[in-house]
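QA checklist item 7 of 12: single-chain prediction sanity check.
[x] sequence parsed
[x] length recorded as 279
[x] structure emitted
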Amino acid sequence: MVFLPLLFSTNEAWLIDDFPTILGPLFRSGVIFLVFVLASSAVYLCNDVLDKKEDIYHMEKKKRPIAAGMISTKVALTSSFFLAAVSLVICYFTVSDTVWYLLIYFFLMFMYSFFFRAFVVLDVLAISSGFVLRVLSGAVAIDVPVSVWLYVCMALGAMFIALSKRYAELLKEEDRPLVTRGSLSKYRTAFLKPTMYLFLIGTAMAYSVYAVSAENLPTNNSMVFTIPLVLFGMIRYQFLVNSRGLGEKPEEIISRDFFLVGCVVTWLSLVTVVLVLFR
């Protein structure tokens, strides 16, 4: 997510035929990447401590280090605080313009951990907002303008993935008396399934508008050739969620499915080629 502004600023903030121009933006994007790895790790440690009592009854989550007793609550919370502090220090001394966005991220995740996760829709909104903040931080770090439609696309796409995750979790919990998430017991498949389709369509439309209307994209509208890849990727993801019950671990779907990996690589390559040739 944080590297997307760097990708879409090809031949704008940096030139493909002038390698030194990419070193600064690449470094700052890399720093933001590191910062959010540390920050999200801190959040996950804290959440796993809060979820420990529920995770020990879950078939898979009971194997997590904290739930399994391999890491004590004290060590986990200390590590969480340390990682959060390090992320803030690195952010402040290298890309200080993004510190406020990182603080907003921590506040949002704090509210999710202690409040939002118990409420339907609010939980997925909080998760989705975290991804939008990543894109925004990546753009601010390298000082490039990003079309509002790209942010809309990211927000809708993140909602689609978050709802798919809840749908997959709910399917696995239907036959169990114990539900491990506060909001999960309030969701229904009859609500989640059509809502996923709604956000799938919304994401595709937002990306299509971005491809033809963003001011800093090639004026010959050549970016429209990337739209079919986005459509295929999202439909493929939806197929895996519906037909195979996947979705609980989005990172595994995206990284292990041959067709999705090929789609992402092709999309990245095509976007780069379009921006290099026509911008």
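[x] summary fact logged: The mean pLDDT is 87.
[ ] second reviewer sign-off
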